[in-house]
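ok so for the tutorial part 2 we go from a plain amino acid sequence to predicted structure tokens. step 1 is just haveing the sequence, like this:
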Amino acid sequence: MFGFIESQVLFVCNELKIFDYLIDNEKSSLEEISDDLKLPKSSLERLLISAQCMQLLKKDGIQYEVIHELVPYLSRKSRFYCGDKFSHYFKTSYGLFNHLLSAVNENKPQWNKIVSDKLLTCDINSIYTDFIYSDKQSTEDFLSTMWASGYTDSIDLCTKFSFAGYKRLVDLGGATGSFSIAAMQNNPQLSAVIMDYPSVRPYANEKLIEYGLQSRGLFLAGDIFSDALPAGDIYVIGYLLSDLPEAMSVSLIKKIYHILPKNGLIVILEKLFADDKSGPYLTAMLNLTMLLEMQGQHRSTAEYIDWLQTAGFQEIRVIYSAGEKHMLAGIKNE
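step 2 — the prediction. this is what the tokens look like for a chain of 334 residues:
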């Protein structure tokens, strides 16, 4: 019943950098935290007590500290830090979930409930352009969450699957290129084109420069559904099909099949349901999120395989990462 409170306690402690402060100082009193972070003592105390009861923090006398086992996941200095996944869920998804009842009754996204001055159409593009990428802060929050949710799993998948023999990867709806960058890092012969909305360009280019891959990777602004796709021998649909209704998903897969050269490869990256849709937990929670935010849903491995085989792809492989996102790869043999 109080899960909605726990999520906000976690998000707000991260946003206020309380975890980082306590980790850096090992232990601190309420007064010290209040003074150094410039937060009112009374309201801060309520937040800290809740975090303590959630076992995010513990108290030794008058001093608070982060639970030792959680330090790697709550410190921004750690490579295991998970707080960079919070932005979109904290600032956007959480507000949408106030309208879950309406979403179930109406069976459609609920953006118009939180952004009343905009008219939501049924066009999937308008969900991105009018809401997710509507301003700089919203764009940064979404892209930050997507990168944090995708890059580590992409690295894992690209060590488990070889792209040897392939030359050019086209990353459709690739955002800031978490998969493209991971693939290029692990395959020196590979170049990549990231295709997404124009507003994503500066953030994708920034990532390519950060990883020293600007000479092998480029960003192309365009509509992956209506525009001609750039040439490539690998096409990646990364965490996008779960945003889309079935007809659009199947149409995009067929579009890729027709333009791929012989022995070309399609790669689908998604969270995957068990065949009986009993879980896993994270897929189930984000499947419900898709109801409020997008027009798609998460699907089972068998459903994706069926789509690929119907389009003509063969030799379909499923590669599981150690994380939450997995990969299907199929070859055009004709």
